[in-house]
Amino acid sequence: MTVTMKGSDVAAAMKERLQHEVAELGNQGVVPKAAIVRVGARPDDLAYERGAMKRLEGVGIACQVFEFPEAISQQDFERGFAAVNDDPKIHGILLFRPLPKHLDEEAVKQMINPLKDIDCMSAPNIAKVFSGDETGYAPCTAEAVVHVLDHYGLDLQGKRVTVVGRSMVVGKPLTMLLIKRNATVTVCHTRTKDLPGTCRGAEILVAAAGKAKMVTADFVADGTVVIDVGINVDADGKLCGDVDYEAVAPKASHITPVPGGVGAVTSSVLADHVVRAARYLHGSEA
Ligand code: NDP
Question: pTM (2 decimals)?
Answer without folding.
Answer: 0.97
